């Protein structure tokens, strides 16, 4: 039986990442049980049918995936439960960071899954456990016609940097590559989720030298370079994930792979400039991103509902 508050995935008892074949099979099973001719009730059968009609249509499913979890998150926030940069009240994650006298950083601890898998966990996992335990999901994907090869190489350098320098320090961190933003049709090169913090990452490749970042452009030798427009995506993702602290990072790679080049000086910001996105070289991103993720509440938590929604956005 299902209730009116269940998501379409819960109604059909499938993971958020279920394939078309799995959805069809789940619908046949659910319809046989829910159909009034087989002892079910009409209301349940209507919910099963509505769930199938939504999830089997790619366009309707994409639209549903962008919104189905938002209502629950906002309700929790308004009730004093999950809120910005904090775990839901009463969760295993909140217990992790609120033990009296516990000042130890838990970022290096084994992952804790919320909701948990196995006994006492959710009846229908949003994603399989084998998928949730992976630290890296997806790869840079070819898109567009011009400059695709250079972009892919640049993104691969970022993937290698995150995989080798950040993920080992935070076992619960999950890297998702090649996303389409759940908020709109824009692209997100990389997203790193750890506990209740989410970092969106993109990259640039610039010659070695000293650059000055003023909040809007990188200036070098009389030349100004505007970084990729990531701030609006950060704002959009913060809106649909109000329980998280979402930040943006643009890592500037040097041609020779030196993590400390180019040098980026952060100058005084113009009036009205916001520090929504950090502009850093590779060494700066490793240092800053590890600090950002590890200093959040319950950094050893794998937030399964958020991870599931991000995985549905991979190209």
UniProtKB/TrEMBL annotation:
Residues 68-113 are annotated as: Disordered. This is Molecular chaperone DnaJ. It comes from the Bacteria. Residues 7-68 form the J domain. InterPro entries: Diphthamide-biosynth_chaperone, DnaJ_domain, DnaJ_domain_CS, J_dom_sf. PANTHER family: DNAJ DOMAIN (PROKARYOTIC HEAT SHOCK PROTEIN)-RELATED (PTHR44240), J DOMAIN-CONTAINING PROTEIN (PTHR44240:SF10). Pfam families: DnaJ. It comes from Pseudarthrobacter phenanthrenivorans (Arthrobacter phenanthrenivorans).
């Amino acid at each position: 039986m299902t209730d009116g508050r269940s998501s379409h995935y819960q109604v059909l008892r499938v993971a958020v990442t279920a394939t078309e074949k799995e959805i069809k099979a789940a619908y046949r099973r659910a319809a046989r049980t829910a159909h009034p001719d087989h002892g079910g009730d009409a209301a349940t059968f209507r919910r099963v049918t509505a769930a199938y009609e939504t999830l089997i249509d790619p366009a309707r499913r994409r639209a549903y995936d962008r919104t189905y979890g938002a209502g629950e998150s906002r309700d929790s926030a308004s009730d004093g439960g999950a809120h910005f940069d904090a775990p839901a009240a009463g969760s295993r994650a909140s217990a992790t960071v609120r033990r009296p006298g516990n000042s130890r950083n838990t970022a290096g601890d084994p992952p804790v899954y919320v909701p948990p898998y196995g006994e006492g966990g959710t009846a229908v996992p949003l994603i399989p456990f084998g998928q949730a335990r992976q630290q890296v999901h997806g790869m840079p994907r070819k898109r567009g016609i011009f400059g695709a090869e250079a972009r892919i190489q640049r993104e691969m350098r970022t993937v290698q940097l995150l995989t080798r320098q950040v993920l080992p320090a935070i076992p619960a961190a999950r890297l998702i590559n090649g996303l389409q933003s759940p908020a709109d049709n824009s692209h997100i090169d990389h997203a790193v989720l750890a506990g209740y913090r989410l970092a969106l990452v993109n990259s640039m490749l610039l010659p070695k030298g000293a650059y000055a970042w003023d909040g809007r452009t990188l200036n070098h030798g009389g030349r100004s370079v505007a970084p990729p427009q990531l701030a609006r995506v950060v704002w959009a993702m913060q809106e649909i994930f109000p329980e998280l602290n979402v930040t943006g990072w643009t890592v500037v790679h040097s041609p020779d792979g030196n993590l400390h080049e180019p040098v980026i000086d952060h100058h005084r910001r113009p009036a009205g400039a916001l520090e929504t996105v950090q502009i850093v070289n590779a060494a700066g991103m490793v240092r800053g991103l590890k600090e950002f993720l590890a200093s959040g509440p319950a950094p050893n938590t794998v937030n399964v509902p958020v991870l599931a929604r991000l995985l549905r956005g991979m190209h």
